[in-house]
Amino acid sequence: MNSPSRVISFVNAGHFIDHYSMLIFAAAVIIMGPALGMAYSELLPYATPGFVAFGAGSLLTGWLGDRWSRRHMMLIFFVGIGLSMISVGFVQTPAQLGAALLAIGIFASIYHPVGTAMIVSYADKLGREMGLNGVWGNLGVASSALVTGVIGQYLGWRFAFIVPGVVTVLIGVAFAMTVVHEDRKGSKQAAAQARVAKQDMWRVILSLLIVVIAISTTFNAVTVALPKLFAERLADLTKSPALLGIIAAGVYVFGAMTQYTIGRLLDRYALKTVALPLSFMLAPFLYLAASLSNLPLIVVSIGIVMGAFGQVTVNDAMVGKYTTEEWRSRAYAVRYFVGFTAAGASVGLVAWLYEQGGFVTMLHAFAALCLLAIAAALILPREIRTPQAA
User: Fold this and answer.
1) Does residue 286 contact residue 367 with C-beta atoms inside 8 Å?
2) Which SS3 state, helix, strand or coil, does residue 194 take?
3) Which DSSP string do the residues of 46-60 spell out, in sequence order?
4) How many of the other CB atoms lie within 10 Å of CB of 135?
5) Which domains, from first to last, does the chain contain?
6) What positions does the domain Major facilitator superfamily (MFS) profile occupy (predicted)?
7) Residues 297, 168: contact at Cβ < 8 Å?
8) Counts for the chain of helices (H) and strands (E), in that order
9) Chain center to CA of 9
10) What is the rounded CA–CA span in Å between residue 351 and residue 176?
């Protein structure tokens, strides 16, 4: 038997690494261009195959997690993504760069369907652990640009990939030595913690699909657009790029705190009880943000980020609550495949909407999209708590 706290600690570290590794290139590409003799616009497309693999690969990796071994898949994740990051540090041609970034995306696709399922299997308090796991992922997002910039400035862009790659491989070695494979056949561990009437299960599936598409698209769009929105609308407060970055990071801190808070609430109340009031946050805040600037915009942006991050925690908990151990990785695989595909489409959508009418048109459009989150929460049936959950 594995120690639940040890397993969850490794899985949380994996969430940090997963998002950190996927965003190193986005920060390093600024200094890679001159070194490789290529323009920013020429280098950036080499990351596209990796991002496609990040979402599409989850279908296969989730299936392997259920049918083979989640522990073995997580070991492959740590070692594979670590070696892939190191390999980027040794590339000499654009083709080699594209192949190395694709490898990062392939190994990164393991984490969400497999790691999230492990969290559910070992969590004593599902909501709390889901919230904490989300915080670790957000720390990976927030720290990637900062750490990559520091390492790149003092050691060069190649070490910005090599250093975290070496650390990740070492974490994988520690994982291999301290976490063992468990045969889950016939085990009652981590059964579904809540259930609904069989005839209402279609409502759960429909609600999940609707909210994942709406929230994943909006979440990624906000992440992409927020720095540019602040640069345009906070001009009366500051024109310093560094201070704008600090303000954006501070806004995201509220999102991370919300994930933990929502997670704790999900341990105490039925999912619909938490999801319904939360679903009313995004649409009005996005609509208001379209016409605000300076301090009022910062306040409303905090509301947007809190609503989006809270919804992500609800989505993950929904799969964890209503699926059994046997199918859990595959259920998460579908959830993340749909979510990452929708998120990928949001970048082009942001660019097109901004071209049509600036941030006013863009924010109004996403406010309308988030009305679907309300519909999804209303569709959810009332759950029947199991004796274990009670």
Assistant:
1) yes
2) strand
3) GGHHHHHHHHHTHHH
4) 22
5) 1-182 (1.20.1250.20), 198-382 (1.20.1250.20)
6) 7-385
7) no
8) 16, 2
9) 17
10) 44
